[in-house]
């Protein structure tokens, strides 16, 4: 039985998307690439599609971190510092669990990202819950940002 990994979302199956890989034996993160050529406009947030989804155990999440060299060279950051991909985001009905990355461009000019450029890395984490945790058995009904909806 598979416990964690990456898959290509249906919409991107025929678009030559590469699954994330670790580049060295001691790398914690799996390098994630942009699924499209895209421009990040100055002082704006841009959502960049990756064409991938991730599956993991219920007590795990995928942390999305910007690649340090990419961030420094291009002067961009993740708008939310770290993305959190919950286990139940996988195959949700809204977007199939498609991982999208929200970048903020600190430049005064447009920054171009090429399809296939390594833009982030994903690190799998385990987490703990408190005694008497009250999740009320709520099941995710949507995609990005859906856990805050009521």
TrEMBL record:
Residues 16-148 form the dUTPase-like domain. InterPro entries: dUTPase, dUTPase-like, dUTPase-like_sf, dUTPase_trimeric. GO terms for biological process: dUMP biosynthetic process; dUTP catabolic process. It is an enzyme of class 3 (hydrolase). It catalyses: dUTP + H2O = dUMP + diphosphate + H(+). The keyword Hydrolase applies. Keywords: Hydrolase, Nucleotide metabolism. Its EC number is 3.6.1.23. GO terms for molecular function: dUTP diphosphatase activity; magnesium ion binding. The keyword Hydrolase applies. Gene3D superfamilies: 2.70.40.10. PANTHER family: DEOXYURIDINE 5'-TRIPHOSPHATE NUCLEOTIDOHYDROLASE. Belongs to the dUTPase family. This is dUTP diphosphatase.
